[in-house]
Amino acid sequence: MEEQELLTSVETKLRENFGPDLIVGTEMMRDFPVFTIKKDKIVDVIKFLYDDPEMEFRFLTDLCGIHFPDNKGQELGVIYHLHNMPKNWRIRLRIFFGIEDAVVPTLTTVFSAANWQERETYDFYGIVFKGHPNMKRIMNVDDMVGFPLRKEFPLEDQNREDKNDSMFGR
Amino acid sequence: MATEILGKSNIELAASPPGIEGPGFFATRLDKVIGLARANSIWPLPFATSCCGIEFMATMAAHYDMGRFGAERLSFSPRQADLLMVMGTIAKKMGPILKQVYVQMAEPRWVLSMGACASSGGIFDTYSVLQGIDRIIPVDVYVPGCPPRPEQVLDGIVKVQELIKNESLRRRNQPEYKEMLAKYGIE
């Protein structure tokens, strides 16, 4: 199946089963069908795509966060990459939500592999996955303040005394 | 043949410390003798976390041969080590482990920080990397470079030897030393 066909077939399937206002937008990113959907339905949708005999997206390639600070009210997002291994179909699902409301239902009920990926997403973006069995930092030190991949987080270590701004033309 | 080689040997023995020599005796200071013995039999503990560790392997191997300076025997247990050689980027999460290794070493102990990352964080001026190991443990000798060449590491080892030779026997019992350790939160 061509990617464009895949996009339309998945879109029709989702509209049939979840009503017309589930999907916020669809697009082709190069050869990759991408669906932006509503946050609260995400786990149901992935569960449906897992169970449905025509879809069978049974491999979670990746789960990650993203931060667009200029997108007011929709600053944070989570992106799910799904893979149907026998047919080699790949799709991407995205959800967006405000930075004050960064709570997402956990996907560990469908994919156990989501456990560490959700912890990583929490660690770097501060997105809390509700219902996750062990919601704590995974990569960074436990006493870190803030979430380092949010755009407002200063990249450079703030404890260095030897870096004089005047020497770096700042 | 063998006698020929032995006769023309160019192996230099470690120079004896200043003292009074006479027939059948040699008198010198005890701390100089102990310093001499310690300096020429360092047991290093390599704490190699990245590319500087590769350069250290070259230093240790036949071509550069750190064994020439008496540091032949690497100790992979901190309990028996004299010199902690930190080589490579230390992530903040690695910090407590490095400190624990240092604390487990018996006195007298020395620390050599090899390369830009261990000494200052290097190019990794970022939230996840420790900006120099001297933020958590005291360092005796810094070897700059990214990575330093084996010659530089050997130079660092010789500098450590100089420190060891000239260290007073009471240094580690002095209140200044204990204060210095207390600044790092080490008993």
Detailed description of the structure:
The complex is a heterodimer of chains A (170) and B (187). By secondary structure, chain A is of the alpha/beta class. Chain A is built from three helices and seven strands. In chain A, strand 1 (23-29) and strand 2 form a beta hairpin. The radius of gyration of chain A is 19 Å and the shape is elongated. The model of chain A has no long low-confidence stretch (mean pLDDT 90). Chain B is α/β, with parallel strands linked by helices and 187 residues long. Chain B has helices at residues 2-7, 30-39, 51-60, 95-104, 115-120, 150-165, 175-183, and strands at residues 19-22, 25-28, 44-48, 83-87, 110-114, 141-143. In chain B, the strands form two sheets. Chain B has a four-stranded parallel beta sheet. Chain B has a two-stranded antiparallel ribbon with strand order 1-2. In chain B, helix 2 (30-39) packs antiparallel against helix 6 (150-165). The model of chain B has no long low-confidence stretch (mean pLDDT 90). The chains are: A alpha/beta (170), B alpha/beta (187). The interface between A and B is medium-sized, with 14 and 12 residues.
Give the tags.
heterodimer; A: 170 residues; alpha/beta; 5-stranded mixed β-sheet; B: 187 residues; 4-stranded parallel β-sheet; two-stranded antiparallel ribbon; 6 strands; 14% strand; globular
Counting helices, strands and paired strands, the structural category of chain A is alpha/beta
Beta content of chain B comes to: 5-15%
Distance between the first and last residues' Cα of chain A: 53 Å
Overall pLDDT confidence of chain B = 90
> Please, what is the oligomeric state?
heterodimer
What Rg of chain A do the Cα atoms give? Answer: 19 Å
Q: Report the major sheet of chain A.
A: 5 strands, mixed
SSE pattern of chain B, N- to C-terminal: HEEHEHEHEHEHH
| Strand fraction of chain A | 25-35%
Task: Pick out the low-confidence regions of chain B.
Answer: none
Distance between the termini of chain B: 57 Å
Radius of gyration of CA atoms of chain B, rounded to a whole number: 19 Å
Strand elements of chain A, count = 7
Instruction: Please bin the fraction of helical residues of chain B.
Output: 25-40%
Instruction: Report the mean per-residue pLDDT of chain A as an integer.
Output: 90
Spatially, the strands of the biggest sheet of chain A line up as: 1-2-5-4-3
Shape of chain B: globular
Q: Helical element count of chain B? A: 7
**Strand order of the main beta sheet of chain B, please?**
3-4-5-6
Low-confidence stretches of chain A: none
Helix content of chain A: 10-25%
